[in-house]
Amino acid sequence: MALRHAAALAVLLSVSAAAQAQDAAGKAFPPEQIKRGATLYAANCESCHGVRMIGPEWAIDLATFPRDRPDRFVSSVTNGKNTMPPWGDVLKAEEIQALWAYVVAGEPAR
Questions:
Q1: Domain span at residue 84?
Q2: Whole-model pTM?
Q3: What are phi and psi of 15, to 5 degrees?
Q4: I want to staple 31 with a disulfide (CB 3.0 to 4.6 A). Which of 15, 60, 86, 87 is the partner?
């Protein structure tokens, strides 16, 4: 639980850097969306993809996920991919978009 809060806090502390994260069209993600994504990540994704997006070898490395493929990310999260179950019945579309914003922004260096 403390690790989840630490991940979310790291994003909160990096608002200025995270605000520069952009979607595929070059539009900046709002810091609030990135923070929401960090919270959702900690609650739903961290157990497989790891704290600060550093997970085991068997999980995709989200730090290197292609930033120009938001459609691939949304499809994978919504419908599942390989051993990852589908999350489309758990997460709303705007929550998946917040996760994407968080993944694109990345975890700030400590």
A1: 2-105
A2: 0.75
A3: -55, -40
A4: 15
